[in-house]
Amino acid sequence: MNDWAAPLIAAALFAFLSPGLVFQIPGKERPFDFMNMKTSIASIFAHLVIYGLFLILFFVVLHVHLYV
């Protein structure tokens, strides 16, 4: 396996889009919270949808490849 784009992009997106790490949609008291580390089922589902859309964007639409 010489193409490392898929695992690197997926791991980076998973880390940055974890609910509550950088931002959270929807937040506990506001629609958009920064770094509160408190998650809910709604925020987990919202981040799941955003994560999936970004993966589709990078791998299907943009055909990103990284050969090392």
Short description:
With 68 residues, this protein is mainly alpha-helical. It has helices spanning 5-16, 41-61; strands at residues 23-24, 33-34. It is built from two helices and two strands, in the order H-E-E-H.
Task: Outline the structure in words.
By secondary structure, the protein is mainly alpha-helical. The protein is built from 2 helices and 2 strands. It has helices at 5-16, 41-61; strands at residues 23-24, 33-34. A two-stranded antiparallel sheet has the order 1-2. Strand 1 (23-24) and strand 2 (33-34) form a beta hairpin. Helix 1 runs antiparallel to helix 2. The longest helix is centred in the last third of the chain and has 21 residues, at 41-61. It is elongated and about 45 Å long. The termini are close together. The mean pLDDT is 84.
Spell out the key features of this protein:
single chain; 68 residues; mainly alpha; elongated
